[in-house]
Specification:
Layout lengths: L1 H18 L8 E6 L2 E7 L5 H12 L4 E2 L6 E2 L9 E5 L3 E4 L46 H16 L4 H6 L1 H10 L2 H7 L17 E4 L11 E4 L12 E7 L1 H8 L15 E6 L2
Antiparallel strand pairs: 1-2, 1-10, 2-9, 3-4, 5-6, 6-8, 7-8, 7-9
């Protein structure tokens, strides 16, 4: 009886971990690399457009623009592409046909992020005694003006010093009430209220971007939890097998621009049958 009770307690304690396991009916992609195979569960319900884009490029069913010929074509986009950026203790990045971080499929598409679901609508951007929340990349006065003040002024339609002076109390009120979600919205992020978003934990795969709605083909896989990226990148899957391969890639020697000295190639990406 004691054994049965202990087993029941153990099962109950495992529920959160079981719930975070593979979502029912989610597709799994196998990414074969020069370092070994990585199995990725893709969150098709959380990021349907992003997953469809990744699968379409991988399987060769989605059209893209060849950066060398400038012609549209179809093919297994990721085959032969390298991991062009590796930062130890942070992430590994790939998906660029040019191999230098500037390439893509010749198009961009929107983010799939629910900031409220991630809790960003409840986190104050400016905390007690004027401290800036650690999620925001604000370290200097210049950062504060660039990431918080100027986007706020644009969102309020303030274009002159006179308007700034006249609306000073309104600005102070908005700054006091501003959440991280508000900060990102002022920067141009448009968040979904329907999708269920996943936080950027260790082992997730997310879209790399250069700002709001600039997704293409580049992605990164986290070596650690990256809470400061919450709400800025679409998380569309996670590693379910082969995390040791990710960590192995994360330990390679890199040169300028955090590019591996020796190429780490993606041999192929295909859906698991």
């Amino acid at each position: 009886m004691r054994f049965l009770l202990s087993f029941a307690v153990l099962l109950f304690s495992l529920q959160p971990f079981l719930a975070f396991g593979a979502e029912e009916s989610n597709p799994v992609a196998i990414m074969k690399t020069s370092q070994g195979d990585i199995h990725l569960e893709l969150f098709k319900k959380s990021a349907p457009k992003t997953v469809a884009n990744f699968i379409g490029l991988a399987e060769g069913t989605k059209e893209y623009r060849n950066f060398k010929t400038e012609k549209k074509m179809k093919g297994n986009f990721y085959d032969g592409i390298v991991f062009h950026r590796v930062i130890k203790g942070f992430m590994i990045q790939g998906g660029d046909p040019k191999g230098n971080g500037t390439g893509g499929p010749g198009y961009q598409f929107e983010d799939e992020i629910n900031a409220s679901d991630l809790g960003l609508g409840k986190l104050k951007a400016i905390q007690d005694k004027g401290a800036i929340h650690r999620y925001l990349p604000v370290r200097t006065q210049q950062d504060y003006q660039r990431f918080i003040l100027m986007p706020l002024f644009r969102s309020m339609g303030i274009r002159s010093q006179k308007e700034l002076d006249d609306r000073k109390s309104e600005i102070q009120k908005k700054l006091k009430e501003m959440t991280i979600k508000n900060v990102y919205e002022n920067q141009g992020y448009i968040f979904s209220s329907e999708l269920k978003s996943h936080p950027p934990l260790k082992g997730v795969i997310a879209m790399a971007n250069s700002g709001p709605n600039t997704n293409g083909s580049q992605f990164f896989i986290n070596l650690v939890d990256t809470p400061h990226l919450t709400g800025k990148h679409t998380v569309f899957g996670k590693v379910v097998k082969g995390m040791e391969i990710i960590e192995k890639i994360g330990d390679v020697k890199v040169g300028q621009g955090s590019k591996p000295v020796q190429d780490i190639k993606i041999i192929s990406v295909r859906l698991k049958k």
